[in-house]
Amino acid sequence: MRAFTYERASSVEAAAQAAAGNREAKFIAGGTNLLDLMKLEIETPTHLIDVNGLGLDTIEATPDGGLRIGAMVRNTDLASHEVVRRDYGLLSRALLAGASGQLRNKATTSGNLLQRTRCPYFYDTNQPCNKRTPGSGCSAIGGYSRQNAVVGVSDACIATHPSDMAIAMRALDAVVETVKPDGSKRAIPMADFHRLPGDTPHIETVLEQGEFITAVVLPAPIGGKQIYRKVRDRASYAFALISVGAIIQPDGTGRVAVGGVAHKPWRVEAAEAELPKGARATASILLADARPTEQNRFKVDLVERALGAAIAEAKG
Ligand SMILES: Cc1cc2nc3c(=O)[nH]c(=O)nc-3n(C[C@H](O)[C@H](O)[C@H](O)COP(=O)(O)OP(=O)(O)OC[C@H]3O[C@@H](n4cnc5c(N)ncnc54)[C@H](O)[C@@H]3O)c2cc1C
Ligand code: SF4
């Protein structure tokens, strides 16, 4: 690990200002992703800004019936919160499908959204990877790509976003609240928060340098059967090959977001109009633009089947 300096931020504004103009600075929350990346020298910040002492660890009702989740709320606390379990079951289930109990005790809401891909070449510093070293090439294209993306891919990168929580947040129409170094605030819909890889796969979100996440806001609950199905190589402690987050209403309408298939949580609202017709009709629009590799073509069928199972489960 490279040497770095460390400070504890005294306020949200001070945290954002400390990171402004210094591309070598990083916020550290639970550290469960960042420290691994630092040990492997995939990320080499020279300055860490610890944001754990800022509060931001409460879950509060909003005036319009939704929930504001502080950026430092731990995954365990979010998954077990009474209102989340009752009204946002998809979020609770997605969180519990991720990582392990110990990791969830430490991992935060903001850190989870910003965790980096699990593409094996991203972690192997001997291999070209455009995400780690822009312009070096993509080893997964033409290489081992079983776990990689099938949709929204580019010629520069076919990585997936690994978060389970983010899939639920996308289906629930969450909004990410931030503060910029100049003190201005933004509310970024989850739909716009993560980027597709394009020619710049190293730029993963729309956050600007120093922009700090303060909370994630959920709109008022929409009811329905909320199901999270995660398909993985091991029954626990493994990232998704694919996952399906579905909210199905009694009349068969609903929402669906999919994980493990793209550089961001994948949701196509036009596909949701097909949900009453079933999984095949929905998946054919959801993954209409799929460009799988030979090794991960199976993901297209797997999404359809997992969605079919979710719809069947919702119907009881
Ligand atoms: C073995 C293992 C298995 C795992 N399995 C899964 C899994 O199955 N599913 C899953 O979803 N996840 C899984 N994870 C990932 C885990 O959920 C993430 O590591 C965790 O959520 C990251 O949160 P953190 O608070 O520790 O982030 P950190 O590591 O502290 O930070 C991650 C990034 O977020 C930035 N950041 C943090 N907070 C802010 C903020 N407020 N504003 C701006 N930037 C911020 C940091 O600068 C850093 O770049 C696994 C992790 C491990 C190690
Ligand atoms: S898919 Fe993306 S993360 Fe993986 S090797 Fe290619 S550029 Fe790197």
Brief rundown of the structure:
By secondary structure, the protein is of the alpha+beta class. It contains 13 helices and eleven strands.
SSE topology:
Blueprint (H helix, E strand, L loop, with lengths): L4 E4 L3 H8 L5 E4 L5 H6 L7 E4 L8 E3 L5 E4 L4 H6 L1 H6 L1 H8 L4 H6 L2 H6 L5 H4 L41 H7 L3 E5 L5 E5 H4 L18 E7 L6 E7 L10 E7 L5 E6 L9 H4 L6 H8 L11 H18 L1
Parallel strand pairs: 1-3, 2-3
Antiparallel strand pairs: 4-5, 5-8, 6-7, 6-8, 9-10, 10-11
Helix pairs in contact: 5-9, 12-13
Helix share, percent: 25-40%
Tally the beta strands: 11
* Average pLDDT rating: 97
Query: What order do the strands of the largest sheet run in, or round the barrel if closed?
Result: 4-5-8-6-7
**Poorly predicted runs:** none
Query: What would you call the shape?
Result: globular
- The first-to-last residue Cα distance is 51 Å
| Cα Rg | 19 Å
Bound molecules: flavin-adenine dinucleotide, iron/sulfur cluster
Main sheet overview: 5 strands, antiparallel
Class from helix and strand fractions: alpha+beta
Strand content: 15-25%
SSE sequence, one letter per element: EHEHEEEHHHHHHHEEHEEEEHHH
* Total of helices: 13
What does this structure look like?
The chain has 316 residues and is an alpha+beta fold. It is built from 13 helices and eleven strands. The chain has helices spanning 12-19, 34-39, 75-80, 82-87, 89-96, 101-106, 109-114, 120-123, 165-171, 190-193, 269-272, 279-286, 298-315, and strands at 5-8, 25-28, 47-50, 59-61, 67-70, 175-179, 185-189, 212-218, 225-231, 242-248, 254-259. A five-stranded antiparallel sheet has the order 4-5-8-6-7. Strands 1-3-2 form a three-stranded parallel sheet, with helices on one face. Strand 4 and strand 5 (67-70) form a beta hairpin. Helix 5 (89-96) runs antiparallel to helix 9 and helix 12 (279-286) packs across helix 13. The longest helix has 18 residues, at 298-315. The mean pLDDT is 97. Bound molecules: flavin-adenine dinucleotide and iron/sulfur cluster (SF4). Flavin-adenine dinucleotide is lined by residues 26-34, 36, 51, 71, 98-99, 103, 106-108, 110-112, 114-115, 162-165, 212-213, 239. Flavin-adenine dinucleotide binds at residues 26-34, 36, 51, 71, 98-99, 103, 106-108, 110-112, 114-115, 162-165, 212-213, 239.
